[in-house]
Amino acid sequence: EQLIESGGGLVQAGDSLRLSCTASGLRFRANAMAWFRQAPGLEREFVAAIRRNEGGTFYTDSVKGRFTISRETAQDTVHLQMRDLKAEDTAVYYCATEGPLTACSSYGACSDERVYADWGQGTQVTVAA
Question: What SS3 state is found at 82?
Answer without folding.
Answer: strand
